[in-house]
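Collaboration report, partner site 2.

Our partner group contributed sequences for two proteins of shared interest, and the home lab folded both. The records are reproduced in the order in which they were received, starting with the first partner submission.
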Amino acid sequence: MTGELPVLYSFRRCPYAIRARMTLCYSGVQVELREVVLRDMPRELLACSPKATVPVLLLPDGTVLEESRDIMEWALAQHDPDHWRPQPGSPAAAAARDLIAANDLGFKPQLDRYKYAERYPQHPRAWYRSQGECFLDELEQRLTHHDWLLGDHISLADIAIFPFIRQFALVDRAWFDASPRLNLRHWLDGLLQARLFTAVMYKYPPWRSGDPAALFP
């Protein structure tokens, strides 16, 4: 590395990148942001992470974090002023782990089929949507008595899952807004309007080798 700041390779609209950027912004950890074009990955990214996905965080000591969950955990370990991360070993920590796993391993594939239904002609788009609704119902139930997924204050789970629910809603926003999941819609709208989200969605120009550093946040 040429500098002392971590380097974040990212793509603004990727839900994994959004949750990593939101956590870095919240924690106040400054990084050098390198916004990439997915169809033209820079060789510097491929050199440190051959799997060619984003986000990737390259730390000053050469450590490479290739998963958004790892980037989020690293950022919160640096600074977590509002206690997003539940106490290790607590029921809340177990609930967060299980809920994020259900999102990443179960809901995300269903979201992809719903969003890109033309690539999966075995079923109509509405069928793929119905598969994802089971997870939406679980979140709705969690939000019935609390403002956030794990209780009365925002947590890592909310930020980890929010970008994927946003993407699901955007496939057919009229349908989503007409659905009976009032609590989930309120939760999503609150996060969409949050300054933290709008700040990380600023459109940076694509990074090219030799470009000056863009500092984030």
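Second partner submission, folded after the first:
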Amino acid sequence: MGLALYNTLTRRIDPFAPLAPPRVTLYSCGPTVWNYAHIGNFRTFLFVDLLRRWLEASGYEVYHIMNLTDVDDRIIKEAARRGSTIEALVSPFITAFLEDRDYLRLEPAHDYPRATEFIGAMVRLVERLLENGTAYRGEDGSVYFSIAKFPAYGRLSQLDRRELKAGASGRVSSDEYSKEQAQDFVLWKAARPEDESAHAAWDAPFGRGRPGWHLECSAMALDLIGQRFGTRVLDIHTGGVDLIFPHHEDEIAQSCAFTGESAFARFWLHGEFLSVRGTKMSKRFGNITTARDLREDGVDAGAIRLLVYQTHYRQKLDLTDEALAAAREGARRLGAFALRLEKSGVAGASEAPEFSEAAAQLESDFAQALNDDLNAPRAVAALFDFVSTGNRLLDEGKPPGGPALDAWRWTDRVLAATTRAQTIALSADSIPAGKESDELPETPPGDKASQERWAEDWARQRLAAKSRRDFKAADRIRALLLAQGWEVRDRKDGAVEVVRKG
């Protein structure tokens, strides 16, 4: 079975095929960089990352665009509050977003267009819509899109079931507005004093101003795929469910009215919300959790990815302490198995038939799951089935070979949900070895090998302290190691593991 995806446009799971195989054009609505992106935002970005990784694992050549919204109502309002320009406001948050992206192992998009870099493309789009009569100048000097001139309006969000409002009485200039009724939406906002003071206004033939939020994505996507591939239709457009209306509905209207095409994107994929203990994440409830919060708490990215992928992207996900703890243990278990498998695999050695069977089953179950509308929970289950079988076979002394290692690495590249930690295990009889504590530096050397020796020497000192019941010294060494990114785990057999996180 080939890849099939739930298409919001058709409300069904459709077989996927790109317009120009093997190329796939993928556009993701990225962050509005007026603050740190929270983990709810990254839930959507992680679903897109899984989509991209699976497309590439399936042999497609993906061209991925993720926009950075660096001018909109919220950004201008925040810049005014701080007395700064929009550029000064957003720059550190763009840097933070890219750092969070790398922490969460998101594959970098091929292009991260910033709205302010595509003003020319936006002006051209508005000019064309004014020429063909689908846009008009309002009495406030702004330019609006007339939804009455676009009969297909409402198809994505199924707004045909609601009353459509158009014209002056149903016009809206805000970037975000009522989710219940369609209104003529703003394409270009006439410049206001606060826009000018924030350096958020540009000259245009139809008046000085700045783009509306909905206009930005259309102009950037069309400009980039048009220049690179000469096409005006995306294969896949993604975002959160909250963007279906009005944002994506408006994107379709203005894009199709501009290009004359019947579609802006052939597949529309939307991820569900992440809540915190049953409550939607929001400043109002004081439950905003950012990626950097989790990183500072020492949560491995593999645990977050595992937590997200244990729920289907079209189902709501509840973040609780218990769920996160379970995901951390699951990711640690995957990491421990990965280390064991890699150490047990001998190049050129024949593989036990049972391992070959397990590897083939993993590949088959994993592919079937993800081809079925990215059913990540089933893919995760297949992975843990392989871990259980693999650990049993290793306990029985049966060797894994190339196919088992290849199957594991293939699935791990797609999910990337393994705790990437290095473990140093020391038994109680190794206490005498190593330097004395007064000879050891408090901080590790720069190179990786020396860092490992440093951690091992301090772990030996901790074992020695415990053996003489100097628990105060043992706790101090644990804290010292933890401060340098090494977690100490005491085992029931008296041995200790020192695990480097990250």
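Feedback sent to the partner group on the second submission included the following. The mean pLDDT is 89. DSSP finds 15 helices and 17 strands in the chain.
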